[in-house]
Amino acid sequence: GRLPRSTTREAQTILFAGRLIDWKGVQFLIRAVPKVLGQNPHTRVLIIGSGPEKGRLMDLAAKLNVQDVIEFREGVPQKELVGYYSLADAFVLPSIRNEKGETEGLGVVLLEAMACGVPVIGSRVGGIPDIIKHGDTGLLVREKDPDDLSEKLILLLSDRALRQRLIQRGREFVEGNFSWDKIAEQFINVYQEVLNNTSP
């Protein structure tokens, strides 16, 4: 499929990729969007994935009147994901602990985004704080808190130096802590593809 290229130069893309299930907390990302738009009117949000929450999330976007800036894409093959990571200015994993106590395990998408040079924001739940050290390898937010999330997004999108530091430290973290034999071979290919395509 054709990748959405924004028409305005200052447009910034926020990405989520994963199953659209309750504990991924995607509704809190959508709830954060109006405030982010207040500061960054050209922001776009790309939500990649499918799942039982999709209809509800689309309804919520319409109710908050942000349906025009949020694009929903069905799950894309791993190989194509790299193209989306390369478009993103920020990757958000807004997971929560749901009523059954289910929450995020390792958060492999965070590692993928970091390896692809995308700064990450995630909630302080499950395995996410093992990957995101706040202000170092990414930014942490309180779960179920769209205000905190919108604040951190606005900060990340506006502070170039912070973004560069998170990208750099995120990459170093993945390289230093995850031996490639433990990560699917596919991911190594994706990673090398990104490195080869990243201009110096």
Compact description:
This protein has 200 residues and is α/β, with parallel strands linked by helices. It has eight helices and six strands.
Question: Any overview of this molecule?
Answer:
It is a single chain. The mean pLDDT is 89. The protein has a six-stranded parallel beta sheet, with helices on both faces. The longest helix has 18 residues, at 160-177. It has eight helices and six strands. It has helices spanning 26-39, 54-63, 78-87, 108-115, 128-131, 146-158, 160-177, 185-197; strands at 13-17, 44-48, 70-73, 90-93, 120-123, 139-141. The protein is an alpha/beta fold and 200 residues long. The chain is globular and about 40 Å long. Helix 5 links the parallel strand 5 and strand 6.
Mean pLDDT: 89
Strand percentage: 5-15%
Following the backbone from N to C, one meets helices and strands in this order, namely EHEHEHEHEHEHHH
Uncertain regions spanning at least 5 consecutive residues: none
Helix content bin = 40-55%
Classification by helices and strands: alpha/beta
Strand order of the largest sheet: 3-2-1-4-5-6
Q: What's the helix count?
A: 8
Radius of gyration: 16 Å
Task: Describe the protein's topology.
Elements: E1 13-17, H1 26-39, E2 44-48, H2 54-63, E3 70-73, H3 78-87, E4 90-93, H4 108-115, E5 120-123, H5 128-131, E6 139-141, H6 146-158, H7 160-177, H8 185-197
Helix pairs in contact: 1-6, 3-8
Descriptive keywords:
200 residues; alpha/beta; 6-stranded parallel beta sheet; 8 helices; 45% helix; globular
